[in-house]
Amino acid sequence: PQSRTSIFLAPSAHIVLERALVCNSSTAVTVVSSGKGATIDGQQTTGLFEVRGGCSLTLRGLNLINGRAGQGGAVLAEGAGNVDIVDSSITDCTAEISGGAVYTVGSGIVALVHSKVSRCFAKLYGGAVFAMSDVDSGLVTLNHTSIVDCKANVDGGCMYNAGTILIATSSSFSRCSAGYGGALYVRSGSTTLARSTISNSSAGNFGGGIFSAGGRTTLSDGTLISGCTATYEANSMALPAGEVAYALPAPIGRWLPNARCEVYREGCEYAAWDPRLLVCIDHRGECSLTSATNPT
Asked: Would you say residue 94 has pLDDT above 60?
């Protein structure tokens, strides 16, 4: 059975780290505070937590600040067990590569609950959260969580999903930016946003709100994309590949963000002699909306 270690930090505590706290064994580690929460500070010189080898980590009631690492400025989970970040804040954390706040690869369930991530940055992917796993495995959940003012230089200002099952419920993503996918970049896997909002985010290239490069993205239960911008095209959403579905009902008073549907397709790439080329050209402009229960 997994051994357990619990640590309580007084709300007034300010813990300054010289190196990351590391767990490499099959242990369940819980770090808890109360009230305004203890602060764990990386001073922009080190990451805060690294968990591997099946180690599980629960962080509750904490303020995680100034973490800096190659991957995962606040938390790196690599082959870890479950990671729960509850009633906590992650602020001013940086990744030299990916996952400004949280980087998870091949781990168990990674959950952010009633938490806030702000002013985090990744030089490449996932300004706040970078999640990778075998296709449609691994689970990352955000529940009543906000990500604000985060940035990635390349893809996914808030989140980058590559192969995981990512589910955001009653959460918000605002004022984030990236080259592609100002708020969310989906490379593969399954991404669901329910009762959530993406707002005022921007892309230096395409997809101010969402950039879908693969996998399946589902927006449901009134999820709204608004006020997002892109330098070239697709202010709300860019769909060069993958599949995006909107499960009704839409937000009250709206059909789709900004009252319009924009579908971006790749060009018809069949060879000149292939008869499918003409079929593709003839039909590529068609866009229809049908009801699953009463198709027309």
From this structure: yes
